[in-house]
Write a structure and sequence with these properties.
Layout (H helix, E strand, L loop, with lengths): L3 H5 L28 H15 L6 H18 L5 H31 L10 H14 L8
Helix pairs in contact: 2-3, 2-4, 3-4
């Protein structure tokens, strides 16, 4: 009996190996695609920190988002690096904005002289509030 290679006219180096009859790759690991759940959670916390920065609770969301973003970058540097960086940036901005709002409200609260506010004399109260507003203008951004 002759070998199949001699009959086909193809050299043995160019022939394809025949696959095993039951080689169905059931136990191979699936490819890692998509993004990390931790990066998504960090991004959500970063967005919440920006949304809630006026209330002051944005600091809490920002710190959680910052921590989750850093951990996500360390654990999965390839799959969700962009999302983790965006979460870190937004969380940092939310923390800074929240701290700015907290500090400006604290300064404003310490500047109020409650003895100058008299509900019976609204003209005096109005003059005091206008003076207070002029002195506090540099804390707020005007558009």
């Amino acid at each position: 009996m002759e070998d199949n290679n001699q009959n086909s006219g193809v050299s043995p180096e160019l022939q394809q190996p025949t696959p095993a009859p039951y080689d169905n790759h059931l136990y191979d690991e699936p490819p890692k695609t998509g993004s990390s759940g931790m990066a998504i959670a960090a991004l959500v916390m970063g967005i919440l920190s920006l949304v809630c920065c006026c209330v002051g609770i944005g600091v809490v969301f920002g710190i959680v988002g910052l921590i989750l973003g850093i951990i996500s970058m360390k654990k999965n540097p390839d799959s969700s690096k962009g999302m983790a960086i965006a979460a870190i940036v937004m969380s940092g901005m939310g923390i800074l904005c929240s701290l700015y709002m907290i500090m400006s409200f604290a300064v404003m609260a310490t500047q109020i002289d409650w003895s100058q506010i008299d509900l019976n004399d609204m003209d005096k109260t109005q003059r005091y509030l206008e003076e207070l507003e002029r002195s506090m203008q540099y804390f707020f951004i005007r558009f």
